[in-house]
Amino acid sequence: RRLYFDTHALVCLLEANGFTTQQSEIIVSALVKIMNTNLDMIYKDMVTKVQQEIALQQVMSHIGGVKKDMIILEKSEFSALRSENEKIKLELQQIKKQVMDEITKVRADNKLNLNLEKSRVKELHAQQDRALTQTDRKIDTEVADLKTMLESHKLDNIKYLAGSVFTCLTVALGFYRLWI
């Protein structure tokens, strides 16, 4: 260890100011011990450059591992979201097909009912004027009701589909946000 002051010069200065040689040397010796004790405490808390570089490399290695884990996790989450999106698309297509099949079935039923009613009207030609008017009104009302019901079901199905899609998107975005 180095002392950053001249101990002999301090002894001489103390002697010049009225201290004896023995007193001057004891004072300087006490100062040196105090400084050495302080330096020991300071050195105990210090780290060498090599230790600091090793710790830095360990931290950087750990950060690199975490980055790799995050990239792998992000890719797996993206793949999961993509597959979930594909499932939702398939379900949506199936529901759309079912709705179209139901619409076709209802239309066919309506056409069949309409044809049956027309054939009955032709058979009952004797009561043609009054019965025909009443039957036409009945058919028009039923057709309007069925169209209204069809539109209502169609709107309900569209609302359900939109709600399902937005719910799935919200959940997916929530998961995405959680992982980021």
TrEMBL record:
InterPro entries the record matches: CCDC90-like (IPR024461)
Keywords: Coiled coil, Membrane, Mitochondrion, Transmembrane, Transmembrane helix
Transmembrane annotation, as ranges: 160-179
Location of this chain's protein in the cell: Mitochondrion membrane
Top-level lineage group: Eukaryota
The keyword DNA damage belongs to this UniProt entry's keyword annotation: no
One Pfam family this sequence matches: CCDC90-like
Main location: mitochondrion
Keyword Endoplasmic reticulum: no
GO cellular component: a single term: mitochondrial inner membrane
GO BP, sorted A to Z: calcium import into the mitochondrion; positive regulation of mitochondrial calcium ion concentration
Similarity comment: Belongs to the CCDC90 family.
Name of the protein: MCUR1 regulator
Organismal lineage: Eukaryota, Metazoa, Chordata, Craniata, Vertebrata
